[in-house]
Design brief:
mainly beta, 3 helices, 14% helix
Amino acid sequence: MFAQLVAFLILAAVAAVEESGPYLVSLLRESVPVRRKGKVVSYKTSYSGTISIGSPPQPFSAVFDTGSGHVVVPASRCTSASCLTHRRYNASASTSSAVINADGSEVNDDEECDQVTIGFGTGEITGELVKERVCLPSSGAVPGSPSAARSLLDRGRHRSGG
């Protein structure tokens, strides 16, 4: 499985949460039965919710997985079958996106950026790293609307005076 995807660093958002205390997000629990010899032997469970990425916000349904410090979404230029069945992130449509290298340094417009490959049990993905604004919906708001996006990054800046 090879698809060009984009990974986002959300390290600044983690710092903002720690500074301001817990931030509760409503998630949907999804369970799929695991069958062996026709019998259900266990369930695979995941928790998903809505996030917004970029400015203006681009809404995505995301699986909240504690095994990674990155948010991985398909890039708008990806044309593989798996990318075409999902919403794709358009970095050029966002005023807050910045392409970065694996070491976190920003990439100039005239430079090539690092390509990273992440392996999973079922395959791998290859793509570029982008530093971007990732927002969680505030309670009772319509996902994807500008008023719904409460930016943890902005909350952290306001508290630290930056």
